[in-house]
Design brief:
Blueprint lengths: L1 H31 L1
Length: 33
């Protein structure tokens, strides 16, 4: 379980950060329009 969690953690972090970046991008476009 620990090994599986450790291997999946980078993907989780990458997806989390990617979602934050995408949200900021959408929010900026919405504010600009």
């Amino acid at each position: 379980y620990y090994i599986d969690y450790r291997n999946a953690r980078p993907d989780y972090i990458s997806n989390f950060l990617a979602n934050l970046v995408n949200w900021d991008f959408v929010a900026q476009n919405h504010a600009a329009s």
